[in-house]
Amino acid sequence: MAQQQPSFLEWLSHHLFACPFKTYFGFDCPGCGLQRSIVALLKGDVIDSIKLYPATIPLVLIMVFTLIHLKFDLKFGAFAIKVAFLGIAVIILINYIYKIYNHQLIA
Amino acid sequence: MSEEQENPQENNPIDLNKSENPVEIPSTSGPVTPPPFQQPPPFGQFQGGMGQQNLPNSTISLVLGILALPACCFYGIFGLIFGIIAWVLGGGDVKKYQSNPGLYTESSYKNAKAGKICGMIATILSLLFIGFVILIVVGAITHPDAYDQFFKGFR
């Protein structure tokens, strides 16, 4: 198992979905980097994951939290999800604007 | 921007309690509504929500609303579809709860409202992105030379 896991991750990193947007228009969409970031996270590189796509870890956390909330019906769960969702939307927006300003869209 | 400014008002739980009371008072005084449907809500509220149901679409709208955010990356259209579905389902459930608040559990109402707002945010985000794409495409059609130079400069 210990040998299989890295090889699977390597295979995964070479078989990601190509962004249909980028293949047609030539520049990144707001979601580009998400898959690379998830692969980096599976490898254990948290810093790499944040650099590639800052919203990955909050997205994973909000999904796990939503499952917990739907299962156990937390008291402030819905409010927390709303606030976290707004925060993630802002992170994605800022990340995209940052990419535009630093000409990282075409890479 | 006007849609985003509406959100904080709906986040307030105080407004909900205020809006519940005017709904209940006419329902008890109105002669049109049948009496058997008026009495279960107070019982349900006092017993801690034993006889109340969950709103039908609250969970779906919440899950779709959250999935709409990563779905923005496929042209923005999937994010728009998920976001609008979550918005409509959540909005319908919120209206259903407000028409007779005693029938449904409050937690599912909160979920429906969260799903509605998440759908709203995702819809706004995908609309922004689609607007950005339309701007670039229009720019590329009207000034093809500038578009080519822009891309050659970075390749």
Task: Please describe what this structure looks like.
Chain A has one domain. The radius of gyration of chain A is 16 Å and the shape is globular. By secondary structure, chain A is mainly alpha-helical. Chain A has helices spanning 4-14, 20-25, 34-43, 46-52, 56-72, 77-101. Chain B has one domain (2-152). Chain B has 8 helices and no strands. Chain B has helices spanning 2-11, 13-29, 35-38, 40-46, 58-67, 77-99, 106-142, 144-152. In chain B, α6 packs antiparallel against α7. The longest helix of chain B has 37 residues, at 106-142. Chain B starts with a helix and ends with a helix. At the A-B interface, α2, α5 and α6 of A face α5 and α7 of B.
List the keywords:
heterodimer; A: 107 residues; mainly alpha; 6 helices; 0% strand; B: 155 residues; 8 helices
Layout of strands and helices, then pairs:
The complex is a heterodimer of chains A (107) and B (155).
Chain A: H1 4-14, H2 20-25, H3 34-43, H4 46-52, H5 56-72, H6 77-101
Chain B: H1 2-11, H2 13-29, H3 35-38, H4 40-46, H5 58-67, H6 77-99, H7 106-142, H8 144-152
Helix pairs in contact in B: 5-6, 5-7, 6-7, 7-8
